[in-house]
């Protein structure tokens, strides 16, 4: 029977979150998610409902990613594979949320390309690009977290 000792070698502790794969993606996720949040907050779109979803996703993912990073940095996780599974599940949900927000934001931006709010068009395009980058980062983190989870 295989020994289960040393399983925490796969989960980061302290400064290890800045040097291990997939945890090295925490900071870029925070940076690009924060940029989406700031750029969407700077724009004015008449149907606020799609933008509200984008703001919810960017704020939720920013706060949860920060909390998740702090939990790992402060060694708040326990010796079990459930933390690896929770890491995979969270990043999968975040990737799905960001993809839906990015598509929604792109649609709203294209709909108002020639509308009365063209002064914010460059900000909207930047927000769309950063939201797709954040989606990609969360997706890569999800795949690498799944690989780590399955290695337990």
Primary descriptors:
4 helices, 152 residues, disordered N terminus, MARVEL domain-containing protein
Largest sheet: none
What is the terminal separation in angstroms?
Answer: 14 Å
Structural class: mainly alpha
Global Rg: 18 Å
Q: Pick out the low-confidence regions.
A: 1-9
Shape: elongated
SSE pattern, N- to C-terminal: HHHH
| Total domain units | 1
Number of helices: 4
Provide the β-strand percentage band: under 5%
Mean pLDDT: 80
Number of strands: 0
Subcellular location: Membrane
Protein name: MARVEL domain-containing protein
InterPro entries: MAL, Marvel, MARVEL-CKLF_proteins
Membrane topology: Multi-pass membrane protein
Describe this structure in words.
68% of the residues lie in helices and 0% in strands. The chain is mostly helical. The protein has one domain. Helix 1 (26-42) packs antiparallel against helix 2 (48-73) and helix 3 packs antiparallel against helix 4. The longest helix is centred in the middle third of the chain and has 31 residues, at 81-111. The radius of gyration is 18 Å and the shape is elongated. The two termini are 14 Å apart.
SSE arrangement:
Blueprint: H1 26-42, H2 48-73, H3 81-111, H4 121-150
Helix pairs in contact: 1-2, 1-4, 2-3, 3-4
State the gist of this model.
The chain has 152 residues and is mainly α. It is 68% helix and 0% strand.
């Amino acid at each position: 029977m295989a020994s289960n000792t040393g399983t925490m070698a796969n989960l980061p502790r302290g400064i290890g979150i800045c040097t291990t794969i997939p945890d090295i993606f925490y900071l870029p996720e925070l940076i690009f998610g924060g940029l989406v949040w700031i750029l969407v907050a700077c724009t004015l779109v008449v149907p606020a409902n799609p933008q509200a979803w984008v703001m919810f996703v960017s704020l939720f993912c920013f706060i949860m990613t920060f909390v998740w990073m702090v939990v790992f940095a402060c060694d708040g996780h326990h010796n079990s594979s459930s933390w690896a599974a929770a890491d995979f599940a969270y990043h999968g949900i975040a990737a799905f949320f960001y993809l839906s927000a990015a598509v929604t934001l792109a649609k709203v931006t294209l709909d108002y390309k020639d509308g009365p709010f063209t002064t914010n068009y460059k900000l909207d395009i930047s927000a769309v690009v950063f939201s797709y980058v954040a989606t990609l980062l969360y997706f890569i983190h999800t795949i690498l977290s799944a690989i780590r989870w399955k290695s337990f």
